[in-house]
Amino acid sequence: MCTAVRIAVRGRVQGVGFRPFVFQLAANYQLTGTVQNNMDGVKIHVEGAREAVHSFLSDLKNKAPRLSKINEILVEEAEPENKAEFTIIASERSGTSMLVIPIDSAVCEECLAEMNEPTDFRYQYPFINCTQCGPRYTIIEELPYDRPYTSLKSFPMCEDCRKEYEDPTNRRHHAQPIACPKCGPKVQLFDDDGHEIHSRIPIMDTIKLLKQGKIVAIKGLGGYHLCCDAANELAVTALRKRKKRPFRPLAIMAASLSTIEQLTELTNDERELLKSPESPIVILKKNNHYPLAESIAPGMNTIGVMLPYTPLHHLLFADPELSSLVMTSANPSGMPILYKDEEACHYLKGIADYYLVHNREILHPLDDSVVQINDGKLDFLRRSRGYVPDPFTTSKDVTGIVAFGGHQKTTFTIGRNEQIFVGPHIGDLENIETIDHYQHELAHLLKWIDTPKGLAVLDVHPGYHVQKLVQEYNFSEVMEVQHHHAHMAACIDEHQISGPAFGIILDGTGYGLDGNIWGFEIFHGDAAGFERLAHLHYTPLPGGEKCIREPWRNAAAMLISLHGERGLELAKAIFTDRVSEIDLLTKMMERNLNTVHAGTCGRLFDAVSAICGVTKVSSYDGEAAIQLAELADEAISFEPYPFALLEKELLTLDFRAMLQGIALDVLAGKDISKISGRFHETVVQAITSAMEKLSGKNPNAEKTIVLSGGSLHNRYLRKRITAELTKRNFKVFVPENIPCNDGGLSYGQLVVAAAKRSASQCVLEYQQKLF
Known about the structure:
Layout: E1 2-12, H1 18-28, E2 32-38, E3 41-49, H2 50-62, E4 69-77, E5 86-88, H3 109-115, H4 159-166, E6 187-191, H5 202-211, E7 216-219, E8 224-229, H6 233-243, E9 252-254, H7 257-263, H8 268-275, E10 281-285, E11 302-306, H9 311-316, E12 324-329, H10 341-347, E13 354-358, E14 370-374, E15 377-382, E16 392-393, E17 401-403, E18 413-416, E19 419-422, H11 432-449, E20 455-459, H12 466-469, E21 477-481, H13 483-494, E22 501-511, E23 517-525, E24 530-536, E25 539-542, H14 545-549, H15 551-574, H16 579-591, E26 595-600, H17 601-611, H18 623-630, E27 644-647, E28 651-654, H19 656-667, H20 672-697, E29 704-708, H21 715-727, E30 731-733, H22 745-770
Parallel strand pairs: 2-5, 7-13, 9-11, 10-14, 17-20, 20-21, 22-29, 23-26, 24-28, 29-30
Antiparallel strand pairs: 1-3, 1-4, 2-3, 6-13, 7-8, 8-12, 9-12, 10-11, 14-15, 16-19, 17-18, 18-19, 22-23, 23-24, 25-26, 27-28
Helix pairs in contact: 13-22, 15-16, 15-17, 15-19, 17-18, 19-20, 20-21
């Protein structure tokens, strides 16, 4: 008996070989009909024997291409159209967009095999790709995702590529970036003056230059990298000097997993991350035989490593003597990622010796994603290439909500129906270039996602640039969300926690509702609202931001404010070269001049780091805390320093005894690693004690806790806090797919706004029923 159905498939179903998959599935079951991309996803009309149609629907759901992600399949009966065959028809560009924008993916094994096959017509071609790999988001101009709306539109297909592109049985059927040496993009090598080095094989010449210790700017998938031989100390040192990046760790790209195993203590989970289609940078522990230049990650026990994720990258490792390359974003400090050729040549003058470029235009730049396995779970430090703009699914209608994020590690987030789209990593909104980059990417995603501009969500900090930025958009309503509530809400929503929970938020800086700087908080509530139950004792930051850039100032101010004359003596004994400046800081605090008060985990870590002599002046955000954390081995048990919990209006964590003990230990010349371990354990035990006390005061509250904030990237804190609270029967949740740092802030802001909007609608409906 013949039956016909209409099918709508929504999710990540464009740019992933979904239509050829449907075509072959229909052929397998001898069905006729059509498949079409449209602004709503993929539309299918299929007809044939009833049992065959049922089998088709089952395989559609269970055997979809590896890069696809089906969110919804809608099936309804249809009138037979008596088609003679099954065909793929042209995309429909009308209608409301429900598309999931395809993500960029690392080159697949099939393409690599062809690239390395001398008889293949794409032999050693650096832009080989298929429906299961290659550029997507970075080359899209308009939707739906078809070649005329990508940066490949300027490369007419040759006869060979056209044949594959039009063959429904070929894995390159409708692979929009399809190309070959005849018709596709090409690479060129330039010197630092912009003169082309005419070469038959530019990539091989680049390898020779790298082996000679040269620094090469390489145009990749989402932007430019600065590259040099990772085993060449002189080259790495020169790169640091030229880029004015003295200490911040550099990422490397290793030729293979076997190479990475020679450098690090690689686990199975980390191996799978490295091999994944997303191919992020993974933070790994160095092993005892680590052979690379020490200046790649100075003073660190860890290193950020990725595998080659484009064909061009793989070709750079053709020489076995070059097994690891520094591969760091080419942007100057504070600037967004460089992706335009003319900008790269301008900004990298005097930094790069040579430029390996290609003529495939990057329309949307993407930084490399950065992740680690932290206490057995995924921990995103930066969510970008390979993951953006893949949506999250939530339980509320978030249509029309746009969250603008914060000031550092900025992202924006857009809501549509029950989908949440987190934009790419933007960076710190400190200059016009980064702000322009933010607005460019936001404009494109707003257009593509096609959701009304109903509610804009901002951080409450009055000094954040997003407060001004939102005025350039025509939103019907603006809502402000407290920084740490957004962190808490993001974790609550990620884990779909129903009902109130405790939130422990350990962070650097967030504007508090009392006008002070928060960042060491214990809340209770949900996405719609919270109650602040406990916090770190406030201490002054004389000079404000200068205390953050120069942690010794913060440390001296903490000691003096907590211990008076004794603290002043300790500060001068530790910072012997800053005595006159310490006297000035004391006067500023006494007169409350240019002084704010803060109780944050980040500033506490900064102070201890400076007292220990680890980092007195920071060269990058978070350096003091990161370097101190590197000294604390989570596998060792440490005795905590003394601390106090003060029963004030709010429970207050007081670490004055700990800080004095640390200062005395430093002056006594005790081991800094042990001091760091004891400090970390003190924070753990103070939080655990505070939670026991608060839980005892609220015996009816569910023992559910979410942990978030940038300090939760710290491996020791995440592991030990989770262990101690779990031991006391708390159920602990941590961010896994959303960064716990400010890269996840916009997601949390949107979640809070949706919850508040839903709550107000419920109240309105109730009032309407009453009256």
